[in-house]
Amino acid sequence: MFESTTTLDMPARTNRSAGTPLARANVRNSFAPGAVDLASLVPIMYTFMFRNIASDGFVYSDPQSPDDISRDSKPGCIIAAPSFPADTPGIDQDYVFNWVRDGAITAMEVAKADMPTGPSGAVQTLNDYVTFADLCHSNTQPPWTKGHACFTIAGDVRPWTEQNDGPALQSITILAAYDQLDPDTRKRAVDLVNSNVAFLLGVYEDPTTNLWEEHSGYSFFARSAQLRCFQEIQASTIAGIEKPAGLRPAVDWLRQALAGHWDGSKYVSVMADPGNGAQPSPHDPVVSGYDPNIDIVQSAVYGAVPVTDTKLLATAAQLRSQWEEGGIAFYPINKADRENFGIGPLFGRYPGDVYDGDTSDPVLGGHPWALSTCNVAELHYKLAAEIKSSGKVPVDDLSAPFFAPSGIDASTAPAAAAAALTATGDAMVRAVVYHSDNLELSEQFDGTTGYERSVHNLTWSYAAYLSAMRARAEAV
After folding, report:
1. pTM, 2 dp
2. CA separation (Å) from 394 to 112, 311, 402?
3. d(CA 100, CA 351)
């Protein structure tokens, strides 16, 4: 169980900084990469994540208007990172905002952390999360939709895109947190989930802005998150959770739609809207340089895609190969890590990526991300747990390239396969730990040097580490 940090003596208003890029670039951890106990770092990573959650006594100021208390954070606001240009030279992005998706992924880790409860038996941080989510929800009046993706720390709409994975992930998290809410917040939570589901039932067949906020179309990740949401609503026993008649047809439709993203060798991340009400095909023109995309793996971590899906594993194998030596977006740090320490590889987003936190200095292929790497490690852990449970290793012609780096083939015994997959995941997470700044995690690592870059202390990076460790516990 984690100790609560809500009672610490902290400053009332803060724009906390983790140091400049120069300071971070000259830090190298002193421990041996292969020796660290990954599970033992969970409380530290949780603390780093938790400090990016506002409470009644721990308030963020708006870096654009630091003296305007009306724009201070509301309790339950989860910022993407405490990083903005004036605070972090070398980046041009302000991350002191609340993204619905990032907030839901983070709050899930709070819900799973066995936090101490108050007199009402509730976890106040989760009460605050639901209350803040409801505030943002109430502020999404036309022309904004309930799928709006980004809000200020005060809960106001920030002009941004509509992303229909957000309400799904938020609902999944609220269902998981429900038993840790106080009675009044439980009612608010049920109303919020019902409203989210009603919205999603009206848009799940439509295109949306994708996970990386770069293209609009039919998103594999959004569809997988919506499918998981609808499935969990169907299975819910929480009083007041509505189960509209359209749920079952939506589940069937989304399953078929996800299958339609297969192009014969991989799952396609985003399919374009052909217009005229027609449904897209993976054989239609797709976004160049966007596949294989890490959001396919994230669809198994946060969405409804089974980790035993051999088409998913075929896609994951291509993701790995594109960032290793000889790949189309090779990261030299992966070669150095493997040869020197037997750790890695680190994973990025997609081969045509050019975002590195400084859009004036793009690098083709981008850089590896901590969260991407932890998500791929989690896929290995989840698959190991499934193999242990079922006694079956899903090796076929499609998935064989995924299993090969772990030394697994059709003749490998299930117990040995599970152990090998866990070891493969550990090597990836060890690379994240080794390249961290004394365990603090930025958004990205430099693909050549391995040093941290882009925004510092990305909340999702910590949440991804914690989620991976929860999956690892099931595997080992």
Report:
1. 0.93
2. 29, 11, 10
3. 26
φ, ψ for residue 28, nearest 5 deg: -135, 130
Q: One-letter amino acid identity for 140?
A: T
Phi first, then psi, for residue 162 (nearest 5°) are -95, 125
User: Are 133 and 20 spatial neighbours (Cβ–Cβ below 8 Å)?
Assistant: no
Residues 6+ apart with CB under 8 A from 348: 294, 323, 329, 331, 365, 366, 367, 368, 369, 372, 447
Among 89-98, 320-329, 375-384, 415-424, the minimum mean pLDDT is found in 89-98
Model pLDDT for residues 36-54, shown as the tens digit of each residue = 899 999 999 999 999 999 9
User: Taking residues 449-469, what's their average pLDDT?
Assistant: 96
Calpha distance 275→281 (Å, rounded): 12
- For the cut 80, the answer to whether the pLDDT of residue 363 exceeds it is no
Q: What is the pLDDT of residues 259-307, one digit of tens each?
A: 999 999 999 999 988 776 677 777 777 788 999 999 999 999 999 999 9
| Length in residues, the chain | 476
CA-to-CA separations, 51 to 73, 135, 291, in angstroms, rounded: 13, 21, 34
Whether omega for the bond prior to residue 292 falls within 30 degrees of 0, making it cis, is yes
φ/ψ (deg, to 5) at 59: -115, 135
Q: Determine the Cα–Cα distance for residues 182 and 179; give it in Å rounded to an integer.
A: 8
SS3 of residue 47 by DSSP: helix
Report the DSSP beta bridge partners of residue 58.
55
Phi (first) and psi of residue 30, to 5 degrees:
-90, -15
Determine the 3-state secondary structure of 124 from DSSP: helix
Strand residue runs (E) in 263-372: 270-271
Rg of the chain on CA atoms, in Å:
21
What does the block give as tokens for 49?
């994540």
Distances (CA, A) of 213 to 101, 171, 342, 370: 11, 20, 34, 19
Cα(33)–Cα(106) distance, integer angstroms = 26
Contact 303, 225 (CB under 8 A): yes
Q: For 306-317, write each residue's pLDDT tens digit.
A: 999 999 999 999
- What count of Cα atoms within 13 Å lies in the side-chain half-sphere of residue 350? 21
Q: Which 3 state secondary structure label does DSSP give 302? A: coil
Res 92: pLDDT: 72
What's the token pair of residue 358? 């400084």
